[in-house]
Structure prediction request, 258 residues.
Amino acid sequence: MSDTVKAIPLFYGDYGENENPSAWFAQFELSLPINWTDTQRVQRFGMQLTPGEAAEEWYQNLTSLELSSFANLKAAFFKRWPHAKCPKLTRAQQKERIMAQVLKEEEVGEWTQVGRTGNYAHVIWAINVSKLALGMGDVNGAMIEYALEGIPNVLKDHLECAYTTWEEFVEDIQRVPNVKLKRSREDLEKNRAWDAEIAKLKAQNSPSPLLLSQQFAQMSIPAQHAVPAQYCSAPRMFNPNVPVSPQSMFNVGPFMAP
Prediction:
């Protein structure tokens, strides 16, 4: 049996560069030969730590009991770097994440290079959405209806839109011929151009707001009727030699004699 140790990256222990301690330790265990003793495993672990970093400093401060067996070392490792718990999302949060994956209309039917081959952008989108949903535990396809809301009509018009699994969802999108999508896009562009032309004609035939305001300004407004001069009273002149009673002070009008 081979005693060759597989090479793996050194461990820093600072969570930098997306370092995942749990994944690293699993990779480290797989790199060790099966017939190695605990002493060999513990020694090899110390050699896999980046010099001068947090992990090496932690290792140098371990007790003799923690270094006595690989099982004890493993327990001490996960006490220092515990397993990251997968967040439990509510159904509302899962719905929000799925609905946030919106497929753009211009992406439908566009070829995208992925790896050595490539695929259509809308197919890649469907695969990514299904992986997201399955990663959240939606094995029954309950979130498919929300994914359908993010699909443009140029693609949705060619889908069955009735699925029980995410596999059916992806397969149906993959089956749509690109020639149909191209024709649908051309028809959509023609309809939009037609609607724009109609809106332009309506705008030309209807008066502009400026023209309407000018027309209202030119409209004649009837002037108020002038009051005849004979009904206008001149200021009342009082004779200082004539006694004035309080009542006579209010009898000031055009038809009152002085």
